[in-house]
Structure prediction request, 286 residues.
Amino acid sequence: MLRKLSLLLICLLCLYGCNRSSTFTLWQLPSQVNTIGNSYVIRTSHGKIIVMDGGGEQEKDYLKGFVEALGGKVDAWFISHLHNDHMGALKVLLESDSLRIDKIYHSSFTDEQLPLEGEGWQKYYETFYATLDNATDMEVIDCHSGDELEIDGVNFKILSEKNPEIKDFNNSSMVIKMWDKHKSFIFLGDLGVKGGNKLLASEYAADLECDYLQMAHHGQAGCSKGFYEAVKFRACLWPTPSWVYNNDLGQGFNTGGLKTIEVRGWMDELGITEHYRSFEGLVKIE
Ligand SMILES: [Fe+2]
Prediction:
């Protein structure tokens, strides 16, 4: 009898193990410089590699090494929006042709949006788009709200695309939901109050449910309290350096002008107790 029970237990454990191995793994990469990089790497159950944003230029070597340790080829790279703390690493990696990338998914900004942050940045982003346009060995996909795709059992849905009528870059962050049967994530990029409210008023508000929510704009300002109240989620991903997390610009806790402590208070009010902060090191979620 005891032997039969042991065999049953072993079978159940094996089944559980096999089941878990069929899910994807996500890493939240720690910032390599004391600033606001936004970078996630995902490995599917059969080894496909997906990058969300990838962080700033100074983080390119760490990101490249991380991807190379996983096989060296990126199957899909999602860019939330044009800002160098999100696509700077990708820009320099493309320019140096030092990483194999199959597909890039983004929400292409309009020509009218590109000058919004001044001439210097306009040239920076135009150079990036020219690199994408001239690439011959990868596919670049311009995404729209409602688009869905599946990569090796991992599902993706675009919940929000660029919003050129809101004249800033952050509110044009592409919002991406990613899930399989075990867990789900929503990446908000640097979405702001206006973009968040527009998403809430859209048909895709019904999709705002996930296990893990990437805090908008590194958890500093970003979306409204009402937006976070409307999303059903249980854990926060903070792509955030400690000085932003603590609103400490050198004079002590909560002495700067950042809104992070207020946002942290909202999370407390919502009863969220599970937090993953990039300044604490590499986060791995399986
Ligand atoms: Fe950002």
